[in-house]
Design goal:
The complex is a heterotrimer. Chain B is mainly α. Chain B is built from 12 helices and no strands. Chain C has one domain: 3-Layer(aba) Sandwich (Rossmann fold). Helix content of chain C is about 30%, strand content about 25%. In chain C, α4 packs across α5, α5 crosses α7 and α7 packs parallel to α8. The chains are: A alpha/beta, B mainly alpha, C alpha/beta. Chain B: Keywords: Cell membrane, Membrane, Transmembrane, Transmembrane helix, Transport.
């Protein structure tokens, strides 16, 4: 595999819960609680998990949209977790984000040329207005929209088209890394595949590296080279996409995979139905976080947190069953 | 292949839309013009502005200099349509000139309210934390005083006069405006388009002025329109109490103040400026209601 | 397929909305039926009219702007569209119950869970408060809520999303309805919780023998739940048939395209998926002829001018229908 573009080391992002008159915080929501992974140049790393598992917070912490509490984020050989705002500005050209909601991610009061052009205004202030508009028009063509649309407002587009505009905005500065947070989950089924194909095409065209965050395992599988499964602020399993779906090792991954409804008739599958709900991230369970719902829970799981270990072929799992 | 097909399909729809503007504000404006009562309110406002601008041409007499004690207390006649006051001045001319003061007070006090309210509200809503706490505590203190009494207190403290009125009436409104803006800013600062701007590296001021505030304008416009009419009323009340623009400046409030003594003998002294106030307030309120319908709760296409 | 008794039949239903910006034919002449003890899935994308269909059955469409323009909905031999407000109130919750997508908005936040179930039970079953509360506890136990005696006294916000949806199901089933209408009941839930709820719904159906009309956009859920499937597009039914027929032998280009376009758990990765071009049409401005024609790769002249009728395509099976001009040219796809 090629070289690393991004290294995340023991990332923790806690949100204080404010209480009392003066907003002293005594409790924290441990949204991301010690996550480590690498992203290699040109690959797509998928992050899956259910709501509240911390996948979106992980993405936003890497972008420094949310300040991480602890840990290192090494981008292109440089630790960016402690950069100040000004130093960070340079890095922002190289990593961009695609957002989930095609409606709230575009400012309803701005024209497309202003929405996408903002990138040039901020980073290439010497660029003339005319040039800027030409660049925006080019970008619209790249994402499959009519370049004449630059003077339109977001309300004139459908959900799928809006998502294309969001993608064009993320491409404007020719970034190396794009973090896509649930980019297709708000779209209709028949529109999803259009956007997935576009993301695939752009990756090849501009040799992009993606972190693809989603809750839909089949969508993640389709786009990713490697996939990390998150549960309650931690990555529980991380491996090659094919391997994860054919030989899952963690009981949570297994349950998750078996729970996906498959659009086929007559395929009999073993179904693992997990009991109960995901515990609160304010007060996560001791030991392995999954032990409260795990069908194979052992005594050790309740006490000791399993290490995140390589069980061979770069297949990382955090489970006592596999780690022995 | 995919691209061209998409483009072809969307181009087909083009012609019907061509000549209409797609700006969300213009769309709202067009919808507003379909609302008959709002348009009526708008006509009243235009009419008032017209009068204020052309008062010197429209007035048959000068409101201050043309006094003639021998013609005092005349009822409405062909010579003096609205009658004359205790100094024999033409009430119609004074009412026409009075519109200048009223509209100026309405607008100028809103400018004061908006500049203080937007600045503090945006700071509080965007930065939260200590900034927010200090500003909101100030706003609460502000709200603990009845607005009008507070305006009187300011007028007394600075001394009466037109500029005092601008400031006093503008200042008492800031807390409400700040609260409105703060709520809106807090709503939008979490939205994905603001996150997108931050991930592009936009500065705080850029985010506040270019991303957030344009989205907060709808309720601000509504509350400002409504605010103009209450400022005009408040100005009349201040003048009525003798705290507004000083005589002989013709304002509707002070005209009523002086007319009060003659309410039984010369009721026209108080009726005509009173009607002018009612008409103005009515106009702004109708228009404001119409604005609320098209701008609130949210813009849809 | 064995012949089952029809329990609800919808005939030529048209529910239109008369809005500021024009006419929306949300449901435009659809006919289908639900048989005793079966699960009928209605699939389609946003705005295809699937939810309005469900609301029409319960006469819950706000009128105005909505209007039932034509059609009849026969339930127990009577036309629901002709029923009065009062009569419908007695049918809702009792004979026909509904579960919504957002349990938080369909539960009243100021009443306890127990109270809300009791209210339905007391309205329809002439029980006193105490007996009704016992039924409520029993129902919560049935839908797998731990410590039901404690939970009946809790408020909706104290429960997780999955728990709330269980409460909704308990409430819906508390009066033993003959038909349960579920509108995207698992869309707001996580996969593992969705699996729990689907499992529960299947069990409850077996136990009570009621029929389910299940509305969803997720073809995976359809495959899991459906006995029969109705596919809707832009206010019309484009195809209907048994689950096997729809998944293994889709006849309409839209159904076929949808099935091909979704990413699967096996097969090739990172390759281009099949794409249905264009976008879902605006209901204000529908294309002439077949509503799907601008996106259809097989569209011909007739598709652009004349609307295809929904006709039986299997002489042995009158329930297998499709609305496409191509069927004349026999099986083109697959």
């Amino acid at each position: 595999m090629s070289e690393k573009l991004l290294e995340v080391k023991d990332l923790k992002t806690y949100f204080p819960i404010q209480n009392g008159l003066f907003g002293r915080s005594t409790k924290y929501v441990k949204a991301v609680d010690g996550v480590s992974f690498d992203v290699y140049k040109g690959e797509t790393l998928g992050l899956v998990g259910e709501s509240g598992c911390g996948k979106s917070t992980t993405g936003r912490s890497i972008m420094r949209l949310i300040e991480p509490t602890e840990g290192k984020i090494i981008f292109d050989g440089k630790d960016i977790s402690s950069l100040n705002k000004k130093q960070m500005l340079k890095i922002r050209r190289e990593m961009q984000m695609i957002f989930q909601d095609p409606f709230s991610s575009l400012n309803p009061r701005k024209m497309v040329k202003e929405i996408i052009g903002a990138a040039f205004e901020i980073h290439m202030s010497s660029m003339r207005k005319k040039e800027r508009e030409e660049e925006v028009a080019k970008l619209l063509e790249v994402v499959g929209l009519n370049p004449d649309y630059i003077t339109r407002y977001p309300h004139e587009f459908s959900g799928g088209q809006r998502q294309r505009i969001g993608i064009a905005r993320s491409l404007a500065l020719k970034p190396k890394l794009i973090i896509a947070d649930e980019p297709v989950s708000a779209l209709d089924v028949s529109i999803q595949s259009q956007v997935l194909n576009l993301l695939n095409k752009l990756q090849k065209q501009f040799s992009l590296t993606y972190i693809f965050i989603a809750h839909d395992l089949s969508v993640v599988r389709h786009l990713s080279d490697r996939v990390g499964v998150m549960y309650l602020g931690k990555i529980v399993e991380l491996t090659d996409a094919n391997r994860l779906y054919t030989k899952p090792a963690h009981p949570y991954t297994k349950a998750l995979l078996s729970a996906i409804p498959i659009p086929e008739i007559g395929v009999k599958r073993e179904r693992i139905i997990l009991e109960g709900d995901v515990p609160s991230p304010i007060n996560p369970p001791n030991g392995c976080r999954f032990h409260t719902r795990c069908p194979k829970c052992m005594d050790i799981c309740k006490e000791k947190e399993p290490d995140f270990k390589d069980i061979g072929d770069k297949h990382y799992v955090a489970c006592h069953l596999v780690n022995g | 292949m995919e691209k061209t097909q998409l483009m072809n399909k969307s181009q087909k729809k083009e012609p019907e839309k061509k000549n209409k503007s797609n700006n969300p504000w213009i769309i709202a404006w067009r919808r507003l013009l379909r609302d008959k009562t709002a348009v009526f309110g708008l006509y009243i406002i235009i009419f008032l502005i017209f009068i204020a601008v052309f008062a010197p041409i429209l007035s048959p007499y000068h409101p201050i200099e043309d006094f003639n004690l021998s013609e005092a207390f005349q009822g409405p006649s062909m010579k003096h349509w609205f009658g004359t006051d205790w100094m024999g001045r033409d009430i119609l001319s004074r009412v026409l000139y009075g519109s200048r003061i009223s509209l100026t007070v309405g607008l100028a006090s809103r400018v004061v309210t908006l500049s203080i309210g937007i600045t503090l509200g945006a700071l509080a809503g965007y930065f939260r934390g200590k900034v927010d706490m200090v500003i909101m505590r100030l706003a609460e203190i502000m709200d603990a005083f009845p607005n009008f009494l507070f305006a009187i207190a300011i007028s007394v403290a600075i001394g009466p006069g037109l500029y005092t009125v601008f400031f006093a009436l503008g200042f008492v409104g800031w807390s409400g405006m700040a609260r409105l803006i703060r709520g809106q800013v807090m709503l939008y600062r979490e939205s994905e388009f603001v996150e997108a701007a931050r991930s592009l590296g936009a500065s705080n001021s850029r985010i506040i002025f270019k991303e957030i505030l344009p989205n907060c304008m709808a309720p601000v416009i509504i509350s400002t329109t409504m605010g103009i009419s209450s400022a005009i009323m408040a100005e009349a009340s201040l003048s009525f109490l003798g705290l507004g623009a000083q005589p002989p400046t013709p304002t509707w409030g002070s005209m009523m103040n002086f007319g009060r003594q003659y309410i039984w003998t010369a009721p026209y002294m108080i009726i005509f400026p009173g009607l002018a106030i009612v008409l103005t307030v009515y106009g702004f309120n109708l228009f404001g209601d119409g604005l609320r319908d098209v701008l609130d709760p949210r813009m849809k296409d | 397929m064995e012949k089952k008794e029809e329990m609800l039949s919808v005939k030529d239903l048209r529910t239109y909305f008369y809005t500021h910006d024009g006419l929306v034919p949300a449901v435009d002449g659809i006919s289908f039926n639900i048989k005793k003890g079966e699960t009928l899935c209605v699939v389609g994308e946003s705005g295809c009219g699937k939810s309005v269909t469900a609301m029409s059955i319960l006469k819950l469409v706000p009128t105005p702007p909505g209007k039932y323009v034509s059609g009849e909905i026969l339930f127990k031999g009577e036309d629901l569209l002709k029923k009065s407000h009062e009569e419908m109130r007695m049918i809702r919750g009792n004979d026909i119950a509904m579960i919504f997508q957002e349990p938080m908005t369909s539960l009243n936040p100021v009443f306890t869970v127990g109270n809300q179930i009791c209210e339905t039970v007391m309205l329809h079953q002439q029980l006193n408060k105490k007996e009704a509360m016992e039924v409520a506890v029993e129902m919560l136990r049935k839908v797998g809520i731990p410590l039901p005696e404690k939970r009946v006294r809790e408020y909706p916000h104290q429960l997780s999303g999955g728990m709330r949806q269980r409460v909704m199901i308990a409430m819906a089933l508390s009066c033993n309805p003959i038909l349960l209408i579920a509108d995207e009941p698992t869309t707001a839930l996580d996969v593992t919780i969705q699996a729990q709820i689907l499992d529960l719904m299947r069990k409850m159906k077996e136990e009570t023998g009621s029929s389910i009309m299940f509305i969803t956009h997720d073809l995976g859920v359809v495959a899991e739940m459906a006995d029969r499937v109705v596919v809707m597009y832009a206010g019309k039914i484009v195809e209907q048939g048994s689950a096997e027929e729809i998944f293994n032998d889709p006849r309409h280009p839209y159904t076929n395209g949808l099935l091909k376009s979704i990413p699967r758990l096996q097969g090739k990765r990172k390759e281009d998926l099949h794409v249905i071009e264009g976008m879902v049409p605006s209901m204000y401005n529908l294309p002439k002829g077949c509503k799907f024609n601008p996106r259809c790769e097989h569209a011909t002249d007739i598709c652009k001018s004349k609307e295809p009728p929904l006709i039986a395509i299997d002489s042995n099976n009158e329930e297998r229908k499709c609305a496409c001009w191509l069927l004349e040219k026999r099986r083109l796809y697959k």
